[in-house]
Design a protein that fits this description.
alpha/beta, Rossmann fold, 2 domains, four-stranded parallel sheet, about 10% strand
């Protein structure tokens, strides 16, 4: 059995188990003449490194350097591309041959984004980009789910929201305006990655900064109405960072018709970079693993990329034209309208709706199982699924 592979932070020396071998089995990451650098942005401030920090980082990186050494920057569990790559270019500069530098990202359009960056910045010697939907491998391969159950259910939809992001705040308020939150199992824990509850005024202004005044006013009004019950909890507290399944998740999936997935990416994470990456976290793969249809609040064209990964989506039973809308606020409003339309279905219509999508959820579940079990790099015969 091959030894575990770890990525090292050159900021604090921390070692983290790397998923690179699972996602890129064609590369030998155990080669002693390579260095794996942990470059994920959530836990490191690599994006905001100062000039002095970059020099220190480079000196550590070049320890034991030789002309054949490979440098692997592991950001495979994150969807940010250009801000991290911009820093890596400053680190590498003329000290390391770009052909020996590899950046691994979870953004499925990472190569396209990098090509745009190369052209814009007139980079003559780009380094290598590898992409993988790494969170597809993060969830445990479930074995005990029964056939998709067609029945009338307690709630219309399910939505988990832990880390506060502008689009999650806006969706909460727009759904509240239409009376849709109470028809759902809905959490909104109002915390950041350090598990700190956020100031309401800063949360409101962060959301409003991406919206027109009309929509922003609705968000502010309804956030203030909701403030007495925030954080809105389901089965975990704000300080619990749960990316895998827990037993109490099952009842929420079983007793709702669909998931409303508010992915990590919707608006650009950084206004200064204005990057629209296509990134699927565990939030997308949980409903797939639970045979749950879903509406995906994510970057435009995300469903298109999910279909490229061989999954099926739910048009026309869910109107998925929202995925083609590149204006973020308009895409948001269309998604809310589609949730409202579905929420007005009768019990009889819901039974028919479930019958129509049952083959899709079964197919997606089986595909997920095969990909998960086989580490999804071996040949998959889709005709047998």
């Amino acid at each position: 059995m091959s030894r575990p592979v770890y990525a090292k932070s050159l900021l604090n020396g921390e070692l983290r188990y790397s998923l690179l071998p699972i996602n890129f089995p064609e590369i030998d990451f155990t080669d002693e003449n390579c260095i794996i650098v942990y470059a994920a942005f959530v836990n490191q401030n690599i994006i905001r490194m100062s000039s002095d920090d970059i020099i220190i980082f480079r000196e550590k990186l070049l320890t034991g350097h030789n002309s054949d050494r490979k440098y692997y920057f592991d950001c495979v569990q994150e969807g940010i591309v250009i801000p991290v790559i911009s820093t890596i270019h400053k680190i590498v500069e003329d000290y390391i041959d770009p052909k020996n530098v590899y950046f691994f990202t979870g953004a499925l359009n990472g190569k396209e984004l990098y090509n745009e960056y190369i052209a814009k910045n007139n980079i003559k010697n780009p380094f290598n980009i590898r992409v993988s939907s790494s969170w597809e491998n993060h969830l445990n391969c479930l074995k005990s789910l029964e056939k998709y159950q067609i029945k009338n259910k307690e709630k219309i939809f399910l939505s988990f929201n832990r880390v506060t992001r502008p689009h999650r705040t806006a969706f909460l308020c727009l759904l509240e305006e239409k009376g849709l939150r109470e028809k759902a199992y809905y959490s909104y824990l109002n915390c950041n990655h350090k598990d700190v509850n956020l100031n309401s005024e800063s949360v409101i202004q962060d959301a409003r900064s991406w919206l027109t005044p009309k929509t922003g006013k609705i968000v502010e009004e309804y956030y203030k109405k909701l403030e007495p019950i925030i954080p809105i909890k389901l089965n975990i507290d704000p300080e619990t960072n749960m990316t895998k399944f827990i037993k109490s998740d099952f009842e929420y999936f079983e007793n709702s018709y669909f998931s409303f997935v508010t992915e990590t990416m919707f608006f650009p994470i950084f206004k200064s970079f204005n990057e629209y990456s296509i990134f699927f976290s565990e939030k997308t793969f949980k409903p797939i693993a639970m045979k749950h249809p879903f509406i995906l609040a994510c970057t435009a064209h995300s469903l298109e990329y999910l279909r490229k990964e061989n999954y099926k989506t739910f048009h026309p039973f869910i109107d998925e034209t929202y995925d083609t809308i590149e204006n973020d606020e308009l895409r948001m409003l269309i998604i809310v309208n589609e949730i409202e339309r579905l929420s007005n279905q009768t019990n009889k219509q819901w039974i028919e709706w479930q019958e129509n999508i049952s083959d899709i959820v079964e197919y997606n579940y089986k595909l997920f199982q095969v990909k998960n079990k086989e580490k999804w790099k071996k040949n998959i015969n889709l005709e047998n699924i």
